[in-house]
Amino acid sequence: MESLASxxxxxxxxxxxxxxxxxxxxxRHKKENKELLAYLLLDADDPLHYxxxxxxxxxxxxxxxxxxxxxxSKRLRxxxxxxxxYQRFTGSARGEAELxxxxxxxxxxDWRHELKYQAIQNIVYRCLVKLETLxxxxxxxxxxxxxxxxxxxxxxxxx
Length: 159
Known about the structure:
The chain has 159 residues and is mainly α.
């Protein structure tokens, strides 16, 4: 496996057309590579706008009917994997906090009664813990914007 430094050195020596063909070839081979390339080319300048574009994808587990707690928890985990992928692409703690708050508020709305299942309790608890650690990473000016909704979520989910 080549080091990143040696790969950068090789890429810097290539012509523009060769770089384009390499990027296209990478995007063709894996869906995540294509998504990352699309993010870098189209949305990298505004990660919070990209978070807004991802919110409808987080609605999917709550829109479809389910037949068991197992299938519902599986859909919740899928939505959380999207949030993790967002964080890997952007590295934005604010955007990830926005998405987690949105996800938990959506859960709180109509699905709070599902907390009687242990697997779903664990998912929600891990989200709350992750959100607490993210709030510490957010700039001081924005912490209260995320701390207040977190406090409200804790009160309503565990009331």
